[in-house]
Structures are given as C-alpha cells and as structure tokens.
Amino acid sequence: MARFAGRVATGLREVSHDPAVLDGTGFWAVVADFEGRITCARFADVRAEESFPQTDPAGWLGPDRSAWSSSLDRDAYTAGVRRIREHIAAGEVYQANLCRVLHAPLPDPDRADVDALTSRLAHGNPAPYAGTVRLPDHGVEVATASPELFLRRDGEVVLSGPIKGTGRTEADLLEKDFAENVMIVDLVRNDLSRVCATGSVSVPDLCAVEKHPGLVHLVSTVRGELRAGAGWPELFDATFPPGSVTGAPKSSALRIIDALESVPRGPYCGAVGWVDADRGVGELAVGIRTFWVERDGAAATVRFGTGAGITWGSDPDREWDETELKASRLLAVASAQ
After folding, report:
1. How would you class 90 by CB atoms within 10 Å of its CB: exposed for 0-12, middle for 13-18, buried for 19 or more?
2. Quick one: pLDDT band at residue 52, thresholds 50, 70, 90?
3. CATH class, range 2-70+107-246+264-299
4. CA 95 to CA 328: how far, in whole Å?
5. Most distant CA pair in the chain: distance in Å?
6. Non-local CB neighbours of 258 within 8 Å, separated by 6+ positions
7. From CA 1, how far away is CA 274, in angstroms rounded?
8. Where are the alpha helices (DSSP H) in 8-109?
9. pTM
10. pLDDT tens digits for 233-244?
C-alpha cells in the first residue's frame, strides 16, 4: 500500500524499476534510493484518505531511544567536515552534503508497520510531503515526514523546492546558510535546464523562511517547462540525486561523499512520492526526515539519516549539532514511549 497527499493506494498491480512507466497509465508510488535504484509500484485502487481507515499508531513499536547507533560518530563526522573544507580550499568543490545513517534493532518486527509510524509522525512531526510506501515483498518499507520538494510535475511544468539553511529559529540562520541556498539553487537551475525548454527556467522564490516543528528552513523554488519529448526518465537523468543533498558541483560532491560516508544512504536523500500518470501529475519529495525498515529473517532494523551542507564557512561542531537538531524530534517520535 501507499499513502500520500490525502490518498491511500491499495491493490498492488505491478512493480517496475524503469521510470518510463511513470509516463504510462495508473497511479504509482515511487521510492528512489540515493544510489540510483528506483522502485515504482502501480496500484489498482486509490481512495480519499477520509474513506480509508487510519492505521493504528500502536502498530509501530519503536526501539528504545538509547538503542540508536550512528554510521559516523561525532569525531568521524567533524573530521569529515574538516576534510570537505580542505577540498573546498583546493578548489575541488564549493559545497558538499555530509550525512550519517542511524540504525536500531526493532524489538518486535511484527509491530513494525511503517504506515503506523507515518501515523505517529503525522501527530508528532507533521510535514507537507508525509507518506508511506509499504512493499514488504519487494524490500521497500518507507515512512517519510519530508519537508522538501524534489520534483512536482503538472503536465510540462516542473517545480523543485530545494532547502538549504536550518536553525532552531530564524535568528539562528547565518550568512553561510543564505550563500549555501543560493549555490544549490544555481545547481538546480542547471539541472532543470538540461531537460527544460531554453529560457523557461526561473526562480520564483529565493531564500524564503519556512517554519517546521522545532526548526526553520531556507527554501527556494525553481520552475521550468519540459522540452518536447522529455518525460520522467529524462527528469531523473537530469536531476537525480537531488542537488540539496549532494553539493556543488554535483559530480565532485558525489565523489567526496563516497569517500567520506561509510554506508549507503538508501532511501535517505533519494526520492519518495507518487505519480498519477493518467492525469500527468506527480509529486516527489527529497527522502529526508525518512525512516525505512530492513528485514532479515525474523529480525528487523529501522534506519534514519541526517546530515548537513558543508561550505568553507562551516564550523565542524556546529554542523554536527545541526544533524542532531534535525534528528532529535523525529527519533523521539519513532522510538519507544
């Protein structure tokens, strides 16, 4: 099943790893791993959420708050920040996103329903792009409370809403945050220009402040119109992985990320959302504030990623604190009460 944008999809018809199916027919849930593997699931029945029973939040029994481990500890993460600053000083990159993945064993895998976790997140950390994709037979169980738009498509019009700059309040935002946002907007403009008609890419909003539970973000909007013959495969080729969670230039940032991060990101920093191919519309969020479950026989592990954009102006300890800020509220919601 899948739950997005006030709709619940059930009755799985097919699963594909080819984004070309999104230009066909039907309602699809989409999960794209940061490493590039995409899963598209077409459903037979799509109903308004009010006509579909809410999943009982008790269907999720999270780990103890102390059970979470991180792929990078504080020392390794701050060392990574310093290494990225060395790459910046050498002129190899302007900004790179450094992430870590938290994981914990689930105490009762039979009470590990990610849709129940989505229900808990909706109460404890509401988000504009919240949703569920639950395909256990295909190894995809994702609950997201993402605040960030990766791609919204309505016919030939495409929007992206990169987030860069995070603080507890607007007063916490630094000059570095605004500069970082502008750099990523330029990257997203360039990405969309590869697949949009010449002259159609614009920036309707730059560095707007958005308030979310427990923190604020700087958010910009980039708009473009797809060139003739371009569809979802071309959009993914031009824009994935999202620029806000990679860096600029993207190719250099990806190389640095691969060297510094110790585990794959998976759905974290990828894309999660839906496409209604019959209507030619869709909405994919950047896979941040996102949990996913991995099962191994009778055992199950829940994972969650957090990270920060590193620039020359970054302070290693402050960047670590930003990853903690982004994670703390979500981990409290997902952990045992």
Report:
1. exposed
2. confident
3. alpha beta
4. 24
5. 57
6. none
7. 12
8. 74-89
9. 0.95
10. 999 999 999 999
